[in-house]
Amino acid sequence: MNAREINVSGTLVWYYYICPREVWLIGHQITADQDNANVSLGRFIQDHTYPRERKELAVGQSKMDVFRVTNEGLIIGEVKKSSKFRSSARMQLAFYLNELKQRGIEARGELRFPKEKRKEEVVLDEQTERELDKVCREILRILYLPAPPGPKKISFCRNCAYAEFCWS
Question: Per-residue b/e over 114-131, b at no fewer than 16 CB within 10 Å?
Fold first, then answer.
């Protein structure tokens, strides 16, 4: 793997908190089962929720789900089907806020769970920035491994689009 090809993204941050093996697979462009019901549901939620807001703000290696500009400034939203992996989603959104901050753009973050009809503010503070720095270094370490970490059965495996890859 060429060093220029390696970039940490918000998606990798999200999966880091769930499954290091998936981080390696995604980072090496091994595509998940696109017919997986959860992948399809995620696409549907992305396409059909928050129709009045702008979709997919792309900055660097990141694509943020929704955004809007208010009197209080830019608000970046990350849409998830449930709050089950709330901490992963918070760090993914914090990564996006940090990426904007590095470009001189101040923004606020909102996690959105449309199925649950709730949203939650995400703030980028010093402690979160330190954790992101540590996580990004660990993600790079995983990506430089010559092979993916071994599979480990976790609750996420049941619905994972890589399940066949790991457990066949």
Answer: eeeeeeeebebeeebeee
Average pLDDT, the chain: 82
Q: What DSSP string runs through the chain?
A: --GGG----HHHHHHHTT-HHHHHHHHTT----TT-HHHHHHHHHHHHS-TTSEEEEEETTEEEEEEEEETTEEEEEEE-S-STTHHHHHHHHHHHHHHHHHTT--EEEEEEEGGGTEEEEE---HHHHHHHHHHHHHHHHHHTSSSPPPP---GGGGG-TTHHHHH-
Question: d(Cα 168, Cα 61) in Å, to the nearest integer?
Answer: 32
Q: Say how far apart CA 89 and CA 82 lie, in whole Å.
A: 10
Mean pLDDT calculated for residue range 75-97: 90
Q: Is residue 166's pLDDT more than 90?
A: no
Question: Which pTM value belongs to this model?
Answer: 0.81
